[in-house]
Amino acid sequence: MKKMIGFLVILIFLSCETGIEINLDCVLKHTAEMVKMESSAGDTEKAFVNLSWTWVLRTPAGDGVIVERKIDTDFDSIAYVTPIESLMTFTDTSALLESGIGVSYRLGLLDEGNVDYFDTTDFNIPESQHFWQPDTEFISIPNDTLEIIFSKLQEYDTTDVAIYKMLVSNIDSLFNTPIEEILDALTDTVIDTTVTDTLVKIVVSNINTTSIHMIKISSSAISTLDYITDTSIGLRAFIRLPSSKRR
User: Fold this and answer.
1) Which residues, 6+ apart, have CB-to-CB distance to 4 below 8 Å?
2) Is the pLDDT assigned to residue 243 strictly greater than 70?
3) Pairing assessment for the beta strands 26-38 and 231-240 based on DSSP bridges
4) 202 near 229, Cβ under 8 Å?
5) CA 105 to CA 26: how far, in whole Å?
6) What pLDDT, on a 0 to 100 scale, did the predictor assign at position 222?
7) I want to staple 163 with a disulfide (CB 3.0 to 4.6 A). Which of 75, 148, 187, 191 is the partner?
């Protein structure tokens, strides 16, 4: 009994952090990620909401869990997660999820045709990032110093700025590539640094004029539990121009 009380005290402490809802049935965690890729061909945005829940006292009997979402006025059923397990997850990638909007999710246990709603959570999708510089795909970098300027997001104090070398040979192909595939392709890191300002000057002597590179700015809300921190990501692909060329 003392162990259970201690466990619940820890859960109550964790519930003070962004992204955790607790009741006597389950511990529900949510993370939201907004990704925006800017380009001269048009901007692309994609939101990801991950829900995961684990049962506090015991795993209930039932057929599965119905996931409902409310953006405007009514809850709509969007998923059915089965079978019932000690840890259950669902990821929402709907195009209805937009930057900055409020969203609610409701979970219901389905058992022999009856639905017993056991948890509801409400939160906002992160705002999207915006680049001021660079503002085009083809840029000159005088003195090997790249200037990156972006908007500061409210309540997002620390930002990671990274540059990746891409394997694609045609920059236009990136604009038709799903956001998920672009994120998965960000593996060849050229620069990775953490900043507190919205203007960053990075020495990029190792960035050549024959490869396509991607700037990624990633801001996360302050949390002592990183795995439940909401994140906003901005992407901008570019090609370095030879010093004799201008666009």
Assistant:
1) none
2) yes
3) parallel
4) no
5) 14
6) 58
7) 191
**Distance (Å, rounded) from C-alpha 106 to C-alpha 66?**
8
Q: What angle do CA 95, 69, 179 make, to 5 degrees?
A: 25
d(CA 120, CA 107): 6
For 108, other C-beta atoms within 10 Å of its C-beta total: 21
Give the three-state DSSP class for 2: helix
Contact 66, 52 (CB under 8 A): no
Q: Which residues, in sequence order, are CB contacts of 173 under 8 Å at separation 6+?
A: none
Confidence band (pLDDT; 50, 70, 90) for 73? Answer: confident
Largest CA distance in the chain: 75
Strand bridging mode 26-38 / 44-55 = antiparallel
Count the Cβ atoms, other than its own, within 10 Å of residue 97: 19
Contact predicate 193/203, CB 8 Å = no
Own/partner pairs, 119-124, CB within 8 angstroms, 24+ separation = 119/21, 119/23, 119/25, 119/26, 119/28, 119/53, 120/21, 121/21, 121/28, 121/30, 121/51, 123/18, 123/19, 123/30, 123/32, 123/230, 124/32, 124/100
**Range in 27-41, 144-158, 213-227 with the lowest mean pLDDT:** 213-227
Exposed, middle or buried by CB within 10 Å (0-12, 13-18, 19+), for 224? exposed
Q: Which of 148, 188, 160, 199 is nearest to 38 (CA)?
A: 148
